[in-house]
Each structure stands twice: as C-alpha cells, then as structure tokens.
Amino acid sequence: MARICELTGTGPIKGSHIWRSGKAKKKGGIGTHVTAITKRRFMPNLQRVKAVINGEVRYIRVTASAIKKGLVVKAPKRTWKKPEAKKA
C-alpha cells in the first residue's frame, strides 16, 4: 500500500542522515567533520480516518496535518442500537 495522503497527495520525501565526528570549536576542539552520509526517507504521518467522501462514509488514509487543517469531514457517530430480543 502506498504511503500517500489521499487528500493532499503528500508522500515520502528523500533526505540524508549525516554522521559527524570531532569536537566543536567553541567547546575547545578542532571542529566537527562529516564522516558518512547515508540516504533515508521521511515518511508522512498517515492516519486511518472514517470520513464522509461524496456523501458516503468510508475509511481514508490522510496525514495528521490534513486533519489539523480541517480538510477531513469526519463521519457522524453512529446512533444505531441493537434491537432487544423478544421474550416468549
């Protein structure tokens, strides 16, 4: 399943993890140096939410930021109650 927001289209972003060694100059060292750089991916904070889409209620995967912005119309709470069993 793709890690993409169904509303905003936000997906994973490329980045890198940088390793540094040495002591900072202001702490009395000779400065830090980059020793290795490896690629990594920043994943969006996806949440599974019950929302109203085109008049019907269904589950969608959206980012937390889309929920905070109010882009998602959440489904109303269910008021349906289980029917009571008939006594004989």
TrEMBL record:
Gene Ontology molecular function, alphabetical: structural constituent of ribosome
GO terms under biological process: translation
Pfam families per the UniProt record, alphabetical: Ribosomal_L28
InterPro entries per record: Bacterial_rp_bL28, Ribosomal_bL28, Ribosomal_bL28/bL31-like_sf, Ribosomal_bL28_bact-type, Ribosomal_bL28_sf
GO cellular component: ribonucleoprotein complex; ribosome
KW Cell cycle (keyword) present: no
Keywords assigned by UniProt, alphabetized: Ribonucleoprotein, Ribosomal protein
Protein family per UniProt: Belongs to the bacterial ribosomal protein bL28 family.
Protein name, UniProt field: Large ribosomal subunit protein bL28
Source organism of the structure: Pedosphaera parvula (strain Ellin514)
Organism taxonomic ancestry: Bacteria, Pseudomonadati, Verrucomicrobiota, Pedosphaerae, Pedosphaerales
Gene that specifies this protein: rpmB
